[in-house]
């Protein structure tokens, strides 16, 4: 009797690549002419990324620079969750966080999608912040991976294909 083939669905981000993108954004903001004199900066504080500038438009421009650096480093913007700009004294601030792991509501959406639209032999189980997908047919697993590549709510990676 053949054993089940499996793969794991995870949502992970390389911390070093985020650090590199942040450093590149800091350098570009320090050098760009349109950021001179507006107090624009981007910093990593604990788990969140803090962007500051003198006006709301400049804070959004700082976010745009940071997003472009993330894309160049191969990090999906689905894993960046940016808040709205808010006034803090004389400057505007915006906080952004990097989402890692698959939260319960998203995991339930993925399992429902697999159940409804995937091949019938596929079984998906939630294991903490990742999903294990199993089936006897490797072709069904590959069809499921192809279907999940278009998932909009999270940046997904597929590992441990056995």
Description of the molecule:
- Belongs to the YajQ family.
- InterPro entries: UPF0234-like_C, UPF0234_N, YajQ-like_sf, YajQ/Smlt4090-like.
- Nucleotide-binding protein.
- This protein is of the alpha+beta class and 162 residues long.
- The chain has two domains: 5-12 and 102-159, Alpha-Beta Plaits (2-Layer Sandwich), CATH 3.30.70.860; 15-98, YajQ-like, domain 2 (Alpha-Beta Plaits).
- Helices cover 36% and strands 28% of the residues.
- The protein has helices at residues 15-31, 56-72, 104-117, 138-148; strands at 5-10, 41-45, 48-53, 80-82, 86-88, 91-98, 123-127, 130-135, 157-159.
- Strands 2, 3, 4, 5 and 6 form a five-stranded antiparallel β-sheet that branches. The chain has a four-stranded antiparallel β-sheet with strand order 7-8-1-9, covered by helices on one side.
- A hairpin with a 2-residue loop joins strand 7 (123-127) and strand 8 (130-135).
- The longest helix is centred in the first third of the chain and has 17 residues, at 15-31.
- The radius of gyration is 20 Å and the shape is elongated.
- The mean pLDDT is 86.
User: What is the H/E string?
Assistant: EHEEHEEEHEEHE
> CATH homologous superfamily of the largest domain, by name?
YajQ-like, domain 2
CATH class bucket of the largest domain? Alpha Beta
Q: Over all CA atoms, what is the radius of gyration?
A: 20 Å
Which CATH architecture of the largest domain?
2-Layer Sandwich
Distance between the termini: 16 Å
Level of helix content?
Answer: 25-40%
Low-confidence stretches: none
Shape call: elongated
Beta-strand segment tally: 9
Q: Supply the number of helical segments.
A: 4
Q: Would you give the CATH topology of the largest domain?
A: Alpha-Beta Plaits
Structural class estimated from helices and strands: alpha+beta
Overall average pLDDT: 86
Report the biggest beta sheet as strand number plus sense, adding barrel if it closes.
Answer: 5 strands, antiparallel
GO cellular component, one term: cytosol
Keywords: Nucleotide-binding
Pfam family, one: YajQ
InterPro entries: UPF0234-like_C, UPF0234_N, YajQ-like_sf, YajQ/Smlt4090-like
């Amino acid at each position: 009797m053949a054993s089940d083939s499996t793969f794991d669905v995870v949502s992970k981000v390389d911390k070093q690549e985020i650090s590199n993108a942040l450093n590149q954004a800091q350098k570009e903001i320090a050098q760009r002419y349109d950021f001179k004199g507006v107090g624009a900066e981007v910093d990593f504080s604990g788990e969140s990324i803090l962007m500051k500038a003198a006006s709301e438009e400049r804070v959004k421009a700082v976010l745009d620079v940071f997003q472009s650096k993330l894309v160049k480093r191969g990090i999906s913007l689905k894993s960046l969750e940016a808040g709205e700009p808010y006034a803090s004294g004389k400057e505007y601030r915006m906080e952004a966080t990097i989402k890692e792991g698959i939260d319960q509501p998203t995991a339930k959406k993925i399992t429902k999608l697999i159940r409804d639209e995937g091949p019938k032999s596929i079984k998906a189980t939630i294991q903490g912040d990742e999903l294990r997908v199993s089936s006897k047919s490797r072709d069904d697993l590959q069809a499921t991976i192809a279907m999940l590549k278009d998932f909009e709510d999270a940046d997904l990676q597929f590992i441990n294909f056995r």
